[in-house]
Write a structure and sequence with these properties.
This protein is of the alpha/beta class. The protein is built from eight helices and four strands, in the order E-H-E-H-H-H-E-H-E-H-H-H. It has a four-stranded parallel sheet.
């Protein structure tokens, strides 16, 4: 059975997107999706060939598969081929989601920030949607259909205004006042929320 293609995107591909890729893969596999143990990740402004941020690497040390992933990872810049091949794209911020759409306008419907994906999936669950096929394309379609029904959180719910994060964004700890620990905890919480919802969405009606 072929693996389905999921892409995680941030700016530099050294901090947020490798963690999103790892945690999202765990949630998808737990729900029964056939995805590779390491999802693809890329950065919209990545310099290339840079290792995972040591702070994020330490946060997941000892977790199954993470140490090998972190050791092997080298940053790469997002390409049009990366976007075209991905059936689901999870970005850290709306700016990076926008960069995806700018590169491939047809990818808009399958591109979400991680926090947005969690909120849209929760809304679909609340509407009673069940029986979604175990295909990331079907999951993306279900989440996309909820757009316009979910309001982004008020600034300050996740971050104070000086941290650089608004709405469904997870800011970069390297370029804002957001702390690595808060960034990691938000990614982890969003991935868990998303995973709990997709497990319910794919359950039999």
């Amino acid at each position: 059975m072929r693996h389905e293609s999921v892409l995680a995107v941030c700016a530099a591909n050294v901090c947020r997107s490798p963690v999103i890729a790892y945690l999202a893969s765990r949630q998808l596999q737990s729900a029964g999706f056939v995805v590779p143990p390491v999802l693809a990740s890329a950065g919209v402004s990545a310099r290339g060939n840079v290792a995972v941020c040591h702070t994020m690497r330490a946060r997941l040390a000892g977790e199954p598969g993470w140490d090998d992933l972190a050791s092997a990872h080298r940053s790469s810049r997002m390409t049009a081929d990366d976007v075209e091949q991905a059936e689901l794209i999870l970005a850290a911020t709306a700016a990076e989601r926008g960069a995806v759409a700018l590169m491939r306008p047809d990818a808009r419907a399958r591109s979400f920030t991680l926090l947005e994906a969690a909120a849209l999936a929760e809304h679909a669950v609340a509407r009673g949607i069940r029986g979604v096929a175990l295909e990331v394309g079907a999951l993306a379609e279900t989440m996309n259909a909820q757009r316009g029904r979910v309001e982004p959180p008020e600034p300050g719910r996740w971050w104070n205004l000086r941290s650089g994060g608004i709405g469904f964004d997870i800011p970069d700890a390297h370029t804002s006042r957001a702390r690595h620990g808060r960034v990691f905890d938000t990614i982890d919480d969003a991935a868990r929320r998303w995973g709990a919802s997709i497990a319910r969405l794919t359950a039999s009606a």
